[in-house]
């Protein structure tokens, strides 16, 4: 019986690397796309590079200078004001945020008035007017001419009235300087109180709504008061309004928990 021919045993399968033909090299494609875009826009970038560079540099610089100009002389208040406004915006307490922003706006208006008053007082220092007033009083005392005495008497009355108005301007400036520290303290205390109320509300502890409403009513009532400072220098008469909120700008007080919108 014939034996079957010998055959070679089948080869064992060898390990193959998985095919990568289905994968897309996104990083390489994006890099190539970026190179193509830069190559196509090379003339545009070369032409407008100085303008783009100036824009990138000047935009932050202009924003910085604008903030320096807007908040000049009130930087002691700005950090606490921005923290409180950011917190109220996050908690969506728009009514309380409006009160805080209004108080800051009134402080800035008082700052503008204070700058005008300082410029005016630099031109008409009160101590110089007091010296002139004492000199007029000596002349009035030593003069016996009736006509000259009447003239000096009227001049003395006008000088005393002008000095009284200059003293009012100085008092306004003093109260304005004090109001900055007071308002910064109000903003800080309000922020801390609001954060405390938020934590208490998260624990299920109720807050004093009547107290908050009472404080808000007092703020709005104080915010509606105004004061007028009249300035008279001899024959010239000018009037400059001075808001009372600049004396002690309206302070935001403890808002309710974040789930309650102030009415």
What does this structure look like?
The protein is mainly α and 263 residues long. The chain has a domain at 93-246. 67% of the residues lie in helices and 6% in strands. It has 7 helices and 2 strands; from the N terminus they run H-H-H-H-H-H-H-E-E. The chain has helices spanning 26-40, 42-70, 78-90, 94-123, 126-142, 146-202, 209-223, and strands at residues 226-233, 236-243. Strands 1-2 form a two-stranded antiparallel ribbon. The longest helix is centred in the middle third of the chain and has 57 residues, at 146-202. The radius of gyration is 37 Å and the shape is elongated. It starts with 25 loop residues before the first helix and ends in a 20-residue tail after the last strand.
